[in-house]
Specification:
The chain is built from six helices and eight strands. It is an alpha+beta fold. The strands form two sheets. A six-stranded antiparallel β-sheet has the order 1-7-8-4-3-5.
């Protein structure tokens, strides 16, 4: 079950206890998921965290559970993919507690960026986020063509 796409990039701060206050527009988009909770985990490809609404996490776990665990690569992948996974809740004030080990992994200090990634939210240290966008090794036009260039919707819009 996929939720509607999450939209937006938001800057906020983490307090000394590792709590961040979700910006109101993001909290509103996540309202349907507040009761079920969330999973917070390390990103596979970037030094950031990923916040999954529980429905999205469960959908991902259904896919992962289909992997044959008697194949070593699959077992290694599952272990690494789920390393540091935490179930988290957003409290009545709209705050989310980021556990210390995940804060350390993502180099989160004080200023952070919450960036929508279709059906999840990436949680970045602000400086690391800016560096990832400014990466001169990645030509975004080439990347867009490689990833999206062969997709042609029925409506003719690319």
């Amino acid at each position: 079950m996929l939720l509607n796409a999450i939209v937006g990039t938001y800057e906020c701060k983490v307090d000394a206890k590792g709590r961040l206050l979700l910006p109101a527009p993001l909290k509103k988009q996540l309202a349907a998921s507040l009761q079920d909770g969330f999973v917070l985990k390390r990103s596979v490809f970037q030094p950031c965290l990923e916040l999954y609404p529980m429905a999205e996490w469960n959908a991902m776990m259904i896919k992962i559970n289909k992997l044959n665990r008697f194949v070593k690569k699959n077992n290694d992948f599952i272990r690494r993919f789920t390393a540091g996974v935490k179930v988290v809740e957003i409290d009545a004030l709209g705050r989310l507690l980021v556990p210390k080990d995940l804060t350390s992994f993502a180099h989160i200090d004080k200023d952070i960026v919450l960036s929508s990634a279709v059906n999840i939210v990436e949680v970045w240290d602000k400086e690391m986020y800016e560096k990832s966008l400014d990466n001169s090794e990645v030509d975004f036009a080439d990347l867009a063509e490689d990833v999206m260039g062969s997709i042609n919707d029925d409506n003719g819009i690319s």
